[in-house]
Amino acid sequence: MSDEPLISNGLSTMGFALPGALAVALAKPDVKVLAAVGDGSFLMHSQEIETAVREGIPLTVLIWEDNGYGLIEWKMDLEVGEHAATAFTNPDIVGYAESFGAKGIPDLPRRRPAAHAAYRAGRSGRLGHRLPG
């Protein structure tokens, strides 16, 4: 199961990536797992970082921070031509992940070697990249 994406399609289930990645990591312990998730979706189940650390589940999480529910905003714009109540303020996600004992890597574009090392090591961590705008 190398380089295979697992996505929740159809209903576009927000919050699926992190628990889904945990499930894959448990079902396939020989596979390195990367969860790519938006900040809104991540925050819906972010406490699962604690589960991964406590249970020693190797998992890497890449979080795109844009301070909003991008999928909802896009669908609202598409359907009704405008959007409302889709923006929010993020906590310090690196500090939040580290408070559970995970390794946080801020500013991913400048820290690619550290990100690759965390992924290869197979330890629970959070990789973050704040999107412009």
From TrEMBL:
<dbReference type="GO" id="GO:0009097">
    <property type="term" value="P:isoleucine biosynthetic process"/>
</dbReference>
<dbReference type="InterPro" id="IPR045229">
    <property type="entry name" value="TPP_enz"/>
</dbReference>
<feature type="domain" description="Thiamine pyrophosphate enzyme TPP-binding">
    <location>
        <begin position="6"/>
        <end position="107"/>
    </location>
</feature>
<dbReference type="GO" id="GO:0009099">
    <property type="term" value="P:L-valine biosynthetic process"/>
</dbReference>
<protein>
    <submittedName>
        <fullName>Thiamine pyrophosphate-dependent acetolactate synthase large subunit-like protein</fullName>
    </submittedName>
</protein>
<dbReference type="GO" id="GO:0005948">
    <property type="term" value="C:acetolactate synthase complex"/>
</dbReference>
<dbReference type="GO" id="GO:0030976">
    <property type="term" value="F:thiamine pyrophosphate binding"/>
</dbReference>
<dbReference type="Pfam" id="PF02775">
    <property type="entry name" value="TPP_enzyme_C"/>
</dbReference>
<dbReference type="InterPro" id="IPR029061">
    <property type="entry name" value="THDP-binding"/>
</dbReference>
<dbReference type="GO" id="GO:0003984">
    <property type="term" value="F:acetolactate synthase activity"/>
</dbReference>
<dbReference type="GO" id="GO:0000287">
    <property type="term" value="F:magnesium ion binding"/>
</dbReference>
<dbReference type="GO" id="GO:0050660">
    <property type="term" value="F:flavin adenine dinucleotide binding"/>
</dbReference>
<comment type="similarity">
    <text>Belongs to the TPP enzyme family.</text>
</comment>
<dbReference type="InterPro" id="IPR011766">
    <property type="entry name" value="TPP_enzyme_TPP-bd"/>
</dbReference>
